[in-house]
Design brief:
Largest sheet: 6 strands, mixed
Oligomer: single chain
Strand content: 25-35%
Helix content: 25-40%
Order of helices and strands: HEEEEEEEHEHEE
Radius of gyration: 23 Å
Length: about 180
């Protein structure tokens, strides 16, 4: 009877307690490690001629072999920062609406995402479409297949409607003038 009790209740209880303590240990050690190591999980970096998104805590921005950092993005502040600029203006992206389409059918509405993004830069410089798309994918968890023919249809602040290939490395904002 005691053997059956241990087999049916004791071992599963022990396993549950062991797994719970192990999971708690992993969570605590991860968070304490982030604090001690100074990990910043809220900043993304973008390198020149590289469409990939890099977490600040896992790269060495002072290593020239990695390339040139040109933008960083703060997730909490929803702001792109032009890297290594001394004088900066802060502006919102001059985009009023935006939709990702596949075969002329709307797939994702990016309006709420884009209208809240700020850009701190000199000379009214804006990040490219690849960098904006990288932030969208990273912050929403939506990964768009590069094998599909997605397009981005958007309206700029001058009420011009434009359509571009979603994966082109282009600037959405051209010929900007300060208001």
């Amino acid at each position: 009877m005691f053997k059956e009790f241990i087999f049916h209740y004791g071992i599963p209880s022990y396993n549950f307690v062991y797994e719970s303590i192990n999971n708690l240990y992993n969570i605590i050690s991860f968070n304490v490690g982030n604090i001690i190591m100074g990990y910043n999980l809220n900043t993304l970096y973008f390198y020149e001629n590289n469409p990939n998104v890099y977490l600040s805590s896992f790269i060495n921005t002072s290593n020239n072999l990695n390339g040139t950092v040109i933008w960083k993005y703060n997730i909490l502040k929803r702001t792109f920062y032009n890297y290594n600029c001394s004088y900066k203006d802060t502006n919102f992206l001059p985009i009023l609406t935006a939709t990702i389409k596949l075969h002329d059918k709307p797939v994702y509405d990016l309006t709420d995402f884009l209208i809240n993004i700020k850009v701190e830069s000199s000379n009214l410089n804006y990040p490219t479409l690849n960098y904006i798309l990288g932030v969208f994918e990273y912050t929403t968890g939506i990964i768009l297949s590069r094998n599909e023919s997605y397009v981005l249809e958007y309206m700029d602040d001058k009420l011009n409607i434009k359509t571009v290939n979603l994966f082109d490395n282009i600037s959405l904002i051209t010929n900007c003038q300060k208001n």
